[in-house]
Design a protein that fits this description.
Length: 288
């Protein structure tokens, strides 16, 4: 004879299994999901000693491949560093040097998978009162500051995505505020049908005026994530393993019609050193 107790246990088990399956279908990776990241690579300077680029470049390449980014924005990389990353032949890249609009100086380059995206357009602008030419702006003292962007067609979904990689000034408070205002004006001028992603090193902690303005206009991927954020909140490590982290200064912001399925700050290391003085920040996105 049927055992009612067994039937009840089976019904509960199948109900739990159905709930688990429904949850996994909501959050698991699908063919249209995109893994994006922002990664300040720390420029190549010999004075970094054991943390200089020649000791880190293979770790950076391994990290990118291990985590399977579909596209990622970089900051600070010099032409030689970008040439090293070109060994990741599955990626193409766009972006110019901040000093001359060609090759000289640090880049805010964007790498994207050749088999996933078709490049529709790309360009660059400077965070200054003359954004169309290499220049410093407002109270920035040492450096030109640059944004590079790419408009891509996602071959999986057919949808258009505009992504911009930015690096705000590290000294000028006015420059950071005005850079955010310029960035938001630029984003407002994009094709209204495009999905929008702004990512990079904003050199600004979350309570600052410029980040509050970004959060008011766009979704902060950490706050928008449909699963709990993974990893520490801080994104600057200064190569100091085992020490308290610096503040959260690297961000991924998303426009409407983009779901943030997960968000992570990756703390990969070889046990002796980090691949950069910033952690990469990554998010899995779904275009709607």
């Amino acid at each position: 004879m049927p055992n009612p107790a067994i039937h009840r246990r089976l019904r509960r088990m199948f109900a739990a299994l159905a709930l688990l399956l429904a949850t996994s279908l909501t959050t698991a990776g699908g063919p249209g999901d995109l893994r994006v990241a922002t990664y300040n690579l720390r420029l190549d300077v010999a004075s970094d000693g054991a943390n200089a680029w020649p000791h880190r470049r293979e770790a950076v390449k391994a990290l990118v491949r291990r985590h399977g980014f579909d596209l990622f924005g970089t900051q600070e990389a010099l032409p030689g560093q970008l040439a090293d990353l070109d060994a990741l032949t599955e990626y193409a890249r766009v972006g110019v040097g901040r000093d001359d609009g060609k090759q000289a100086g640090e880049h805010s380059a964007i790498f994207y998978r050749r088999d996933r995206f078709a490049l529709l357009a790309h360009g660059d602008f400077w965070f200054s009162q003359t954004p169309e030419v290499p220049s410093k702006g407002w109270d920035a003292r040492c450096c030109n500051r640059l944004a590079s962007w790419a408009r891509l067609r996602d071959k999986a979904s057919g949808k258009a995505l505009t992504v911009v990689s930015v690096h705000f000034d590290h000294e000028g408070e006015v420059a950071r505020r005005e850079s955010a205002a310029l960035l938001l004006r630029w984003l407002a001028g994009r094709d209204p049908g495009d999905a929008l992603v702004a990512l990079g090193d904003f050199n600004s902690s979350p309570e600052t005026e410029q980040i509050r303005h970004m959060q008011a206009a766009m979704g902060d991927a950490r706050a928008r994530s449909e699963t709990p954020p993974y990893g520490p909140e801080g994104t600057f490590n200064g190569f100091a393993m085992g020490q308290p982290l610096g503040p959260r200064i690297d961000y991924i912001f998303v426009g409407p019609r983009i779901r943030v399925l997960d968000y992570a700050v990756l703390t990969d290391s070889d046990g002796q050193r980090y691949p950069s003085d910033h952690f990469p920040v990554t998010a899995r996105l779904r275009l709607e």
